[in-house]
Design brief:
The structure holds 2 protein chains of 2 kinds. By secondary structure, chain A is mainly α. Chain A has a domain at 53-231: Cytochrome Bc1 Complex, Chain C (Up-down Bundle). Chain A has 10 helices and 1 strand, in the order H-H-E-H-H-H-H-H-H-H-H. In chain A, helix 5 (100-127) runs antiparallel to helix 6 and helix 6 (136-157) packs antiparallel against helix 9 (198-230). Chain B is mainly alpha-helical. Helix content of chain B is 54%, strand content 3%. In chain B, helix 7 crosses helix 8 (187-198). Classes of the chains: A mainly alpha, B mainly alpha. Chains A and B meet through helix 2, strand 1, helix 3, helix 4 and helix 5 of A and helix 1, strand 1, helix 2, helix 4 and helix 5 of B. Strand 1 of chain A pairs antiparallel with strand 1 (24-25) of chain B.
């Protein structure tokens, strides 16, 4: 075959895709695709043909988390974690800064939306029986995300340093201190002393904006990785993928295992 | 061999094959729905923030709009007359604490029940090991889920609507208590009763049928008789309960020695034991 001269189009395509190819080559190893290959796999992987709006609750919760992260970073630029100025800095954000009320309001209400979406997502996973083999580990990670999400709310509640914040936290920390063995110790660690004061606020701030969000981001990453790796579960009423029919052991019903013809029984778009 | 494991593996292999043959690519099909949903989420969050801000009256930014106040008063550790409220998703815990009694079983409400619930949630995939995923064929799991949702809903509702007495409502009861308990002639005890009614004690303790039993805190109507710590002993206890192994009750040392002495006198006088008249057993801890 004669080698033809590359056309103008070929040259442009080569130039445009050069950075992508460069990145792919620097992130891959023989037999394993790199970053670009991974993104391609993520985008073009097959998902069950009959998944629908019920399956969007997880990414909805992820969106709420991203809203919290972005608004949280902006708030952290103006918030002062010190009992003498925390309350004033919140008022400054709300009353004086351009769209400060919007950023704070989104963070305040986004927290509730995030928790609600986590519960809805969990309910959907339960309804679909999607916590069963081989997705047990992802269920556990999800429970930890819910737990950390609620803790994030607890630690963030003190930061405005108003009466509601202060007294709810006094009670909350005292409650933890009722725990056996480690309880009183845990109470002291959280307060940073015998009383709720400057040390407590700094501690809560650090936990609220560094430790827990970091852990949450890591767990969410792991959660997503497993979703992509194992595959999105189809609805349990999906005629093809609802699990083995009760009856003879798997070895004897090989016939069922062969894929059905395209489109058979599956609602397609 | 383990038939269940074999069955599960066969199911998963079948699922993978089916998705490969009959599935649709994530982009653009599923991604479209995810994107619409994500935009909806952002819109709802922005709408809540806007409603929060613009339903608050302009002329009085400290007052409450449709979604509550923009900000409360600044935190003041000195005034304990404030009813603590957690965020709504902790209301179920908040109410759970009223069910258990202090000190014997309060730990069940604070640590016991939540820990067990969390462990059950984590253990769910190992408890429900069947391969069946259709809801109608999982009656036990579905019943358990519905009962859990109803329980959480009721506890959240109860926690949201639980009422604490206002300081002013308690204050008018003081003369009544003094009359009934027989310390009306002791102004120090009456002053102590007024402090007791105002600084938030009654958000957890009951006294002569008033107040709220929260966190299972004990009734104090006859604490002078049952506990009998003496004026200084009570003052000491209230100023720092954790010194006496009580880590549930907040510290009240901010009230100051004078107020604590009044409070101690009031507590010691409760239960028909007036230190002015000598019908008291020898007070301990003085």
């Amino acid at each position: 075959m004669a080698k033809s001269k590359p056309t103008r189009v070929d040259q442009v395509v080569y130039l445009l895709t050069y950075p992508l190819n460069w990145l792919e080559e620097r992130t891959s190893s023989p037999g394993h695709s790199g970053l670009i290959g991974g993104i391609k796999y993520f985008l073009f992987r097959k998902v069950p043909g009959d998944i629908s709006w019920g399956n969007t609750l997880g990414s909805a919760a992820l969106t709420a988390f991203i809203v919290q992260a972005v608004t949280g970073v902006i708030l952290a630029m103006y918030y002062k974690p010190d009992p003498n100025s925390a309350y004033e800095s919140i008022r400054h954000i709300t009353d004086d800064l351009w769209a400060g009320w919007l950023v704070r309001g989104m963070h305040r209400w986004g927290a509730s939306v995030f928790i609600i979406l986590l519960f809805l997502h969990m309910g959907r996973v339960f309804l679909y029986g999607a916590y069963k083999y081989p997705r047990e580990l992802n269920w556990i990670i999800g429970v930890l995300i819910l737990l950390l999400g609620m803790l994030e709310g607890f630690f963030g509640y003190l930061l405005p340093w108003d009466q509601t914040a202060y007294w709810a936290t006094v009670v909350g920390v005292n409650l933890q201190a009722t725990g056996p063995f480690v309880g009183p110790f845990l109470g002291d660690v959280l307060r940073g002393g015998a009383e709720i004061g400057p040390d407590t606020l700094a501690r809560f701030y650090s936990l609220h904006m560094l430790v827990i969000p970091g852990a949450l981001a890591a767990l969410i990453g792991l959660h997503l990785w497993l979703v992509v790796r194992i595959g999105v579960g189809s609805p349990p009423w999906s005629p093809l993928e609802s699990g083995p029919e009760p009856g003879p052991p798997p070895a004897e019903r090989k016939g069922l295992v062969t894929p059905a013809p395209r489109g058979a029984g599956v609602r397609r778009r | 061999m383990n038939r269940r494991l074999e069955e599960r593996r066969a199911y998963y292999a079948r699922y993978k094959r089916n998705v490969k043959t009959n599935g649709k690519p994530f982009f653009p099909w599923a991604m479209f729905e995810d994107t619409v949903m994500s935009l909806l989420v952002v819109c709802v969050i922005v709408a809540l923030a806007v409603i929060w801000k613009f339903s608050t009256p302009h002329e009085d930014p400290g007052s409450s709009g449709w979604l509550g106040k923009l900000y409360d008063e600044k935190a003041d550790p000195g005034t304990t007359n404030f009813v603590p409220r957690p965020d709504w998703y902790f209301y179920f815990l908040f109410y759970l604490l009223r069910i258990f009694k202090w000190p014997d079983s309060v730990v069940l409400g604070t640590v016991g029940v939540p820990t067990i619930a969390l462990l059950l949630l984590i253990a769910l995939p190992f408890i429900d090991v069947g391969t069946e995923r259709r809801p109608l064929r999982r009656p036990v799991a579905m019943t358990a889920a519905i009962l859990t949702i109803i329980t959480m809903g009721v506890l959240t509702y109860k926690g949201a609507t639980a009422k604490e007495p206002l300081a002013a409502e308690n204050l008018v009861l003081v003369p009544q208590w003094a009359q009934k308990q027989g310390y009306a002639d002791n102004p120090v005890a009456v002053d102590g009763a007024k402090i007791f009614a105002q600084v938030g004690c009654m958000n957890c303790h009951t006294y002569e049928g008033a107040g709220t039993s929260n966190l299972g805190a004990p009734d104090l109507s006859s604490i002078g008789k049952t506990s009998n710590r003496g004026v200084a002993g009570f003052a000491d206890y209230v100023s720092n309960p954790s010194k006496f192994g009580n880590n549930v009750m907040p510290q009240f040392q901010d009230l100051g020695a004078d107020n604590l002495r009044k409070l101690g006198t009031f507590l010691q006088s409760s239960g028909n034991c007036n230190p002015k008249t000598s019908n008291c057993p020898a007070a301990g801890g003085q």
